[in-house]
């Protein structure tokens, strides 16, 4: 078992490919999440691995020849740690492997390590929502449908997406940007494994498509995303983040008062 000075080979070039560029992306967050899940799954079988490796001590493998080599494996798997502690440990290994790139990705890895196992008093919230809403306070959501996209110029140029939200005795319309959809997905990943969440559309555009064509494509992809989200497992579909996201904000009520009623 080779004792490299770096925990493992994970270079800035690898991080560049995962992120799709120089800047940190949600895909890197997914990568760290999956690595930590895999590490914790392996740790649960530490003694099995040690027994199998112990049978190989007499096979003449130079780097697996005595009890010190087995101790090295034991120390690396840290079976005495909780899953939360092991996640923190492993994300720090990723950070140290990245070297100089670590500072650029610091937010992502520490966000995962420190927030994924926090208690209910520190659960993530949406930065654009002034308060938290719940299934109990807002009423059960029966259906959502992304009606259309609109060009906006304030506070910055871009597009918003108008979502029709159907509750038992009420229909409301909310406007959200692509970045706000992405924030919702990122915060959900802090609470739930990726296997429970629908895939989120990529923010990267291939080719020369821009503007209206990109917004139209994203409208279809985001509509599929929110449909799968509210039909996900109850712990996801009924969580506070989802209900807060689909609750009208003051800006939605203002827009409803100045614009014609959105068509479904």
TrEMBL record:
Q: Which organism is it from?
A: Pomatorhinus ruficollis (streak-breasted scimitar babbler)
Sorted alphabetically, which InterPro entries does this protein's record hold?
Kinase-like_dom_sf (IPR011009), PI3/4_kinase (IPR015433), PI3/4_kinase_cat_dom (IPR000403), PI3/4_kinase_cat_sf (IPR036940), PX_dom (IPR001683), PX_dom_sf (IPR036871), PX_PI3K_C2_beta (IPR042134)
Q: Which GO terms describe its biological process?
A: cell migration; phosphatidylinositol 3-kinase/protein kinase B signal transduction; phosphatidylinositol-mediated signaling
Superkingdom: Eukaryota
Q: Which UniProt keywords apply?
A: Kinase, Transferase
What residue stretches are annotated with the PX domain? Answer: 139-253
Check the record and name the Gene3D superfamilies matching this protein: Phosphatidylinositol 3-/4-kinase, catalytic domain, Phox-like domain
Single annotated GO MF: 1-phosphatidylinositol-4-phosphate 3-kinase activity
Enumerate the Pfam families for this protein.
PI3_PI4_kinase (PF00454), PX (PF00787)
Transmembrane region(s): none
Spell out the SUPFAM superfamilies in the cross-references: Protein kinase-like (PK-like), PX domain
Q: What is this protein called?
A: P3C2B kinase
Keyword Kinase attributed: yes
All copies of the PI3K/PI4K catalytic domain together span 1-102
GO CC, any one term: phosphatidylinositol 3-kinase complex
Q: Which family does it belong to?
A: Belongs to the PI3/PI4-kinase family. Type III PI4K subfamily.
């Amino acid at each position: 078992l080779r004792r490299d000075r770096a925990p493992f080979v994970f270079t800035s070039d690898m991080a560049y490919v995962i992120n799709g560029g120089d800047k940190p992306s949600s895909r890197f967050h997914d990568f760290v999440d999956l690595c930590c899940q895999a590490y914790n799954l392996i740790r649960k079988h530490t003694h099995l691995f040690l027994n199998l490796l112990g049978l190989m001590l007499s096979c003449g493998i130079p780097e697996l020849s005595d009890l010190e080599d087995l101790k090295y494996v034991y120390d690396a798997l840290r079976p005495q740690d909780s899953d939360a502690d092991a996640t923190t440990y492993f994300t720090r290994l990723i950070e140290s492997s990245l070297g100089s790139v670590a500072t650029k990705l610091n937010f992502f890895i520490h966000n995962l390590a420190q927030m994924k196992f926090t208690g209910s008093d520190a659960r993530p919230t949406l930065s654009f929502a002034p308060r938290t809403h719940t299934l109990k306070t807002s009423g059960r959501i029966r259906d959502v449908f992304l009606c259309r996209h609109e060009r906006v110029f304030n506070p910055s140029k871009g597009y918003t997406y108008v979502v029709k939200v159907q509750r038992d005795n009420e229909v409301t319309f909310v406007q959200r940007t692509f970045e706000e959809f992405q924030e919702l997905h990122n915060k959900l990943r802090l609470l739930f494994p990726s296997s429970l969440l629908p895939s989120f559309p990529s923010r990267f555009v291939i080719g020369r498509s821009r503007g209206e064509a990109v917004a139209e494509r994203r409208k279809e992809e985001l509509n599929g995303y929110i449909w799968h989200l509210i039909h996900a497992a109850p712990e996801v579909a009924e969580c506070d983040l989802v209900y807060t996201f689909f609750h009208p904000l003051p800006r939605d009520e203002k827009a409803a008062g100045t614009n014609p009623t959105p068509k479904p």
